Amino acid sequence: FTLFASPPEKDLDWNDKAVEGASRFLSRVWRLAEEIQPDYVNCGPCAAFDGSELTDTIKEIRRKEHEVVKKTKEDFETRFQFNTGIAAIMELVNLMYNLKDELKGSDAGKKALSSALSSCLVVLSPVAPHICEDLWQQLGNTGMLAQSDWPRYDENAMQREMLTVVVQVSGKLRGKIEVPADANQEEVQEMALAEENVAKHLEGKNIIKTIVVP
To answer: Is-contact 165 176, C-beta < 8 A?
Structure first.
Protein backbone atom coordinates (compact mmCIF):
# COMPACT_ATOMS: atom_id res chain seq x y z
CA PHE A 1 0.00 0.00 0.00
CA THR A 2 2.64 2.53 1.01
CA LEU A 3 4.82 1.84 -2.04
CA PHE A 4 1.89 2.10 -4.42
CA ALA A 5 0.29 5.16 -2.85
CA SER A 6 3.21 7.56 -3.04
CA PRO A 7 6.85 7.98 -4.07
CA PRO A 8 9.19 7.27 -1.10
CA GLU A 9 10.21 10.91 -0.64
CA LYS A 10 6.61 12.15 -0.26
CA ASP A 11 4.51 12.29 2.91
CA LEU A 12 1.66 9.78 3.10
CA ASP A 13 -1.58 9.75 5.05
CA TRP A 14 -2.81 6.35 6.21
CA ASN A 15 -5.91 5.18 4.35
CA ASP A 16 -7.72 2.00 5.42
CA LYS A 17 -9.64 1.75 2.14
CA ALA A 18 -6.43 2.00 0.13
CA VAL A 19 -4.91 -0.77 2.27
CA GLU A 20 -7.97 -2.90 1.48
CA GLY A 21 -7.46 -2.13 -2.20
CA ALA A 22 -3.86 -3.33 -2.06
CA SER A 23 -5.01 -6.49 -0.32
CA ARG A 24 -7.64 -7.11 -3.00
CA PHE A 25 -5.01 -6.77 -5.71
CA LEU A 26 -2.73 -9.34 -4.06
CA SER A 27 -5.70 -11.67 -3.63
CA ARG A 28 -6.40 -11.23 -7.34
CA VAL A 29 -2.83 -12.22 -8.17
CA TRP A 30 -3.22 -15.31 -5.96
CA ARG A 31 -6.49 -16.36 -7.65
CA LEU A 32 -4.97 -15.81 -11.08
CA ALA A 33 -2.00 -18.04 -10.26
CA GLU A 34 -4.31 -20.74 -8.91
CA GLU A 35 -6.40 -20.61 -12.08
CA ILE A 36 -3.39 -20.78 -14.39
CA GLN A 37 -1.58 -23.48 -12.38
CA PRO A 38 -3.20 -26.52 -14.15
CA ASP A 39 -1.99 -25.14 -17.51
CA TYR A 40 1.29 -23.67 -16.23
CA VAL A 41 4.36 -24.38 -18.35
CA ASN A 42 7.69 -24.07 -16.57
CA CYS A 43 9.29 -21.97 -19.32
CA GLY A 44 10.65 -19.18 -17.14
CA PRO A 45 9.94 -15.45 -17.44
CA CYS A 46 10.26 -13.67 -20.82
CA ALA A 47 10.24 -17.01 -22.66
CA ALA A 48 11.42 -17.07 -26.28
CA PHE A 49 9.03 -17.82 -29.15
CA ASP A 50 9.51 -18.60 -32.81
CA GLY A 51 7.56 -16.63 -35.39
CA SER A 52 5.04 -19.40 -36.13
CA GLU A 53 3.76 -19.30 -32.54
CA LEU A 54 3.05 -15.56 -32.45
CA THR A 55 -0.67 -14.98 -32.82
CA ASP A 56 -2.03 -11.47 -32.25
CA THR A 57 -3.09 -12.42 -28.71
CA ILE A 58 0.31 -13.89 -27.87
CA LYS A 59 2.01 -10.79 -29.27
CA GLU A 60 -0.22 -8.61 -27.07
CA ILE A 61 0.46 -10.43 -23.79
CA ARG A 62 4.15 -10.82 -24.65
CA ARG A 63 4.51 -7.12 -25.47
CA LYS A 64 2.93 -6.08 -22.16
CA GLU A 65 5.09 -8.59 -20.25
CA HIS A 66 8.34 -7.24 -21.69
CA GLU A 67 7.22 -3.61 -21.26
CA VAL A 68 6.47 -4.23 -17.58
CA VAL A 69 9.79 -6.02 -16.99
CA LYS A 70 11.64 -3.08 -18.53
CA LYS A 71 9.60 -0.43 -16.69
CA THR A 72 9.85 -2.04 -13.26
CA LYS A 73 13.61 -2.49 -13.65
CA GLU A 74 14.01 1.20 -14.45
CA ASP A 75 11.49 2.39 -11.86
CA PHE A 76 12.74 0.23 -8.99
CA GLU A 77 16.48 0.36 -9.59
CA THR A 78 17.04 3.80 -11.08
CA ARG A 79 14.15 6.13 -10.32
CA PHE A 80 12.84 4.58 -7.08
CA GLN A 81 9.33 5.17 -8.44
CA PHE A 82 7.71 2.10 -6.93
CA ASN A 83 4.17 3.43 -7.42
CA THR A 84 4.48 3.61 -11.23
CA GLY A 85 6.15 0.21 -11.38
CA ILE A 86 3.36 -1.37 -9.32
CA ALA A 87 0.75 0.31 -11.53
CA ALA A 88 2.40 -1.32 -14.56
CA ILE A 89 2.24 -4.74 -12.84
CA MET A 90 -1.47 -4.18 -12.21
CA GLU A 91 -1.96 -3.53 -15.92
CA LEU A 92 -0.23 -6.84 -16.73
CA VAL A 93 -2.43 -8.70 -14.24
CA ASN A 94 -5.56 -7.17 -15.77
CA LEU A 95 -4.45 -8.19 -19.25
CA MET A 96 -3.75 -11.75 -18.14
CA TYR A 97 -7.27 -11.95 -16.70
CA ASN A 98 -8.74 -10.65 -19.96
CA LEU A 99 -6.79 -12.99 -22.25
CA LYS A 100 -6.30 -16.13 -20.15
CA ASP A 101 -9.24 -18.11 -21.51
CA GLU A 102 -8.19 -17.50 -25.10
CA LEU A 103 -4.53 -18.24 -24.39
CA LYS A 104 -5.36 -21.55 -22.70
CA GLY A 105 -6.63 -22.80 -26.04
CA SER A 106 -3.18 -23.61 -27.46
CA ASP A 107 0.21 -24.86 -26.25
CA ALA A 108 1.89 -21.62 -27.38
CA GLY A 109 -0.82 -19.61 -25.60
CA LYS A 110 -0.28 -21.55 -22.38
CA LYS A 111 3.43 -20.89 -22.67
CA ALA A 112 2.84 -17.15 -23.19
CA LEU A 113 0.47 -16.99 -20.22
CA SER A 114 2.91 -18.92 -18.03
CA SER A 115 5.79 -16.68 -19.05
CA ALA A 116 3.76 -13.55 -18.25
CA LEU A 117 2.77 -14.94 -14.84
CA SER A 118 6.39 -15.88 -14.08
CA SER A 119 7.58 -12.38 -14.97
CA CYS A 120 4.77 -10.87 -12.91
CA LEU A 121 5.85 -12.80 -9.80
CA VAL A 122 9.52 -11.92 -10.27
CA VAL A 123 8.94 -8.17 -10.65
CA LEU A 124 6.31 -8.09 -7.89
CA SER A 125 8.51 -10.02 -5.45
CA PRO A 126 10.57 -7.00 -4.21
CA VAL A 127 7.27 -5.39 -3.16
CA ALA A 128 5.40 -8.46 -1.90
CA PRO A 129 8.10 -11.10 -1.32
CA HIS A 130 6.25 -13.64 0.80
CA ILE A 131 3.19 -14.14 -1.38
CA CYS A 132 5.32 -14.26 -4.54
CA GLU A 133 7.74 -16.83 -3.10
CA ASP A 134 4.79 -19.01 -2.05
CA LEU A 135 3.14 -18.86 -5.48
CA TRP A 136 6.48 -19.46 -7.21
CA GLN A 137 6.91 -22.71 -5.29
CA GLN A 138 3.29 -23.77 -5.78
CA LEU A 139 3.73 -23.44 -9.54
CA GLY A 140 6.57 -25.96 -9.37
CA ASN A 141 9.51 -23.63 -9.96
CA THR A 142 12.87 -24.39 -8.41
CA GLY A 143 15.06 -21.97 -6.48
CA MET A 144 14.01 -18.85 -4.62
CA LEU A 145 12.76 -15.69 -6.25
CA ALA A 146 14.97 -13.66 -3.92
CA GLN A 147 17.99 -15.26 -5.60
CA SER A 148 16.66 -15.06 -9.15
CA ASP A 149 18.00 -12.75 -11.83
CA TRP A 150 15.74 -10.03 -13.19
CA PRO A 151 14.07 -11.23 -16.41
CA ARG A 152 15.72 -10.10 -19.65
CA TYR A 153 13.30 -8.16 -21.77
CA ASP A 154 13.48 -8.15 -25.55
CA GLU A 155 13.13 -4.82 -27.35
CA ASN A 156 11.79 -6.64 -30.41
CA ALA A 157 8.92 -8.07 -28.36
CA MET A 158 7.82 -4.52 -27.52
CA GLN A 159 7.50 -3.40 -31.14
CA ARG A 160 3.95 -2.46 -32.15
CA GLU A 161 2.49 -2.85 -35.62
CA MET A 162 -0.17 -0.22 -34.92
CA LEU A 163 0.01 2.88 -32.73
CA THR A 164 -2.75 4.98 -31.19
CA VAL A 165 -2.35 8.67 -31.98
CA VAL A 166 -4.44 11.36 -30.30
CA VAL A 167 -5.51 14.30 -32.42
CA GLN A 168 -6.00 17.80 -31.04
CA VAL A 169 -7.57 20.82 -32.68
CA SER A 170 -6.65 24.16 -31.07
CA GLY A 171 -5.32 22.31 -28.04
CA LYS A 172 -8.46 20.23 -27.44
CA LEU A 173 -8.71 16.47 -27.89
CA ARG A 174 -10.93 15.77 -30.89
CA GLY A 175 -10.14 12.20 -31.84
CA LYS A 176 -7.95 9.10 -31.73
CA ILE A 177 -6.67 7.21 -34.73
CA GLU A 178 -4.84 3.91 -35.24
CA VAL A 179 -1.85 4.27 -37.56
CA PRO A 180 0.79 1.80 -38.78
CA ALA A 181 3.95 2.08 -36.69
CA ASP A 182 5.99 2.83 -39.81
CA ALA A 183 3.66 5.56 -41.13
CA ASN A 184 5.42 8.80 -42.06
CA GLN A 185 4.26 12.26 -40.92
CA GLU A 186 2.33 12.98 -44.10
CA GLU A 187 0.37 9.71 -43.78
CA VAL A 188 -0.41 10.36 -40.11
CA GLN A 189 -1.60 13.88 -40.93
CA GLU A 190 -3.80 12.61 -43.76
CA MET A 191 -5.45 10.00 -41.49
CA ALA A 192 -5.93 12.59 -38.74
CA LEU A 193 -7.68 15.02 -41.08
CA ALA A 194 -9.94 12.21 -42.30
CA GLU A 195 -11.12 11.33 -38.78
CA GLU A 196 -14.82 12.25 -38.60
CA ASN A 197 -14.82 14.31 -35.40
CA VAL A 198 -11.59 16.08 -36.33
CA ALA A 199 -12.97 16.98 -39.75
CA LYS A 200 -16.12 18.34 -38.11
CA HIS A 201 -14.10 20.73 -35.91
CA LEU A 202 -12.03 21.90 -38.87
CA GLU A 203 -15.00 22.61 -41.09
CA GLY A 204 -14.87 26.15 -42.46
CA LYS A 205 -11.51 26.83 -40.84
CA ASN A 206 -8.11 27.49 -42.35
CA ILE A 207 -5.34 25.30 -40.92
CA ILE A 208 -2.42 27.54 -40.05
CA LYS A 209 -0.08 25.07 -38.39
CA THR A 210 0.13 21.28 -38.07
CA ILE A 211 2.38 19.47 -35.61
CA VAL A 212 2.99 15.73 -35.88
CA VAL A 213 4.72 14.30 -32.82
CA PRO A 214 6.74 11.15 -33.71
So the answer is: yes
